């Protein structure tokens, strides 16, 4: 799960990680009031969406008067912002963050994430603030300094010193930086964060460090114990069909092909997409129906897949283990009674009672349903059906 | 021969009396696994499925001599259960539970390592030595005895692969489902040398997926140390970047962890990499033919 910049900054402030002051606004009036409340003579109007690259897409702008705050808020609220992370369809901006201007002397990058190989969090810093860290890692990896932090002992001053000296900070700024980094580590651990990215982290004219931007993602498995975080969830930023699928215990991700897939198990679901691709087709989605593959979940699966009008055929690929294939076959037949399935459905059931299952499907006499022998045969038939062959 | 577990392995179940724990413990016993007891705090002294129930893992180990624990407790209690097993002297914990927080696993694995306990999972189908011992949730009948070792991040792809291997006339020594979470226990790099050392295993199948770099580490290890043929498939060649594909760890982030880079590394290490998972069985038949 991800949150907005203004929400991440709320968490930062609770932990004394310095940020500029700011207020979120849903209307131009609120934006002007926010600017007045903040005072000063320069403000930043920032679109709040769950995607990076907002500045380049025209979603972050500087205002030098409250009239300009109104103009920019009017322009940005309601716009569809397209960045390298939103995809070509972009994202609708429903709120802006009005922030006081900062006296920027230098920009840095600071991030925290799990290093899966080391099995501990790492903090990364770079002098190349404001640039995509992936590009820095690719082009000038020597400009990224990393420290691994053993969670059993936590953040130590030496971690901070290693980063600070690596960034070339003057001695008198080292302790301020260590305090900042140490507090940020606590934000990360206490909220079961998956990643924190501050890009840029800025040093101001008076030698202070400020998180000018803030991005946070969280471990979904830990949300049950993160009340503060779960309250920040913004469903309008997530895919509606994915949320709906989730309600029924289905894991669904829309793709851009025309062969719908319904599979049990995440690995086999990806493998099925790959097989469709290998056979010359394009998968329309990832869908893991989970272990049980009951009539209800299969029916819901059909419904969700068919919301995508690109879908011209559906490949149901179930490897029955503990779940018996004959039950799944009956479930599929039931499901076609619950949901109107108007495209060819290619069904491959293998594993426990697969032969009985094939008989059930063949005897049901549903003209849309075609039984397949194995994975390759099913994928071939589905690809051909999607092409209208 | 086999790796890690066999017909003599004594197993206890943590979360023994729960719905999932009961169902699968019974299936494991039917397969032939020596389930010698279980742990459910507060139910010590009772009997369940004909086996004793204990309040603590320490009690269970003392009374039964079990060395392996199969863990079925709910996600929020997984790290506690793993650490209790490690503390009690269990040498291998097989964690079936899906949905354990990453931070918990970070702590639990560090503790297990300190106590010299190996872990498999979480969020995995478990481990099976064909015809001898099944510790997990896989359908046992698919795994006919043979000479192929299997390591997989995915449950259903494990079944799919084993089934193809059997259809080609071969069988399995031991199959290990290592799970698809960001932090897991035993991985390719630890399991490959075990299969290399097992005289019965003639070839190895490894199933990977997008996310992380365990497969890349495996490729480097194979190049240096593995003499037996390896067949690999990496799931998620068609997965979009930045999207989590079902498994918590199956995500291409920052442009790394792609199927393409893993396939390239494995190919460079001399592994037979199949593009379609439907070709795993055929590839195994091919490498086995070349052995003769």
CATH class of the largest domain in chain B: Alpha Beta
Oligomer: heterodimer
Low-confidence stretches of chain A: none
Largest sheet of chain A: 6 strands, antiparallel
Strand content of chain B: 15-25%
Radius of gyration of chain A (Å):
26 Å
Distance between the termini of chain B: 21 Å
Shape of chain A: elongated
CATH homologous superfamily title of the largest domain in chain A: ATP-grasp fold, B domain
Count of discrete domains of chain B: 2
User: What overall form of chain B do the CA principal axes indicate?
Assistant: globular
CATH superfamily (homologous) name of the largest domain in chain B: Succinyl-CoA synthetase domains
Q: Which regions of chain B have little confidence, pLDDT < 50, spanning 5+ residues?
A: none
Largest interface chains and counts:
A-B, 57 and 62 residues
Walkthrough of the structure:
The complex is a heterodimer of chains A (389) and B (292). Chain A has 13 helices and 18 strands. With 389 residues, chain A is α+β, with helices and mostly antiparallel strands. Chain A has three domains: 1-19 and 104-238, 2-Layer Sandwich (D-amino Acid Aminotransferase, Chain A, domain 1), CATH 3.30.470.20; 21-101, Dna Ligase, domain 1 (2-Layer Sandwich); 240-386, Succinyl-CoA synthetase domains (Rossmann fold), CATH 3.40.50.261. The radius of gyration of chain A is 26 Å and the shape is elongated. Chain A starts with a helix and ends with a helix. By secondary structure, chain B is of the alpha/beta class. Chain B folds into two domains: 10-120, NAD(P)-binding Rossmann-like Domain (Rossmann fold, 3-Layer(aba) Sandwich), CATH 3.40.50; 138-291, Rossmann fold, CATH 3.40.50.261. Chain B has nine helices and 14 strands. In chain B, α5 (155-167) packs across α9 (280-291), α6 runs parallel beside α7 (214-225) and α7 (214-225) packs parallel to α8 (259-268). Chain B starts with 9 loop residues before the first strand and ends with a helix. At the A-B interface, α4, α9 and α13 of A face α4 and α5 of B.
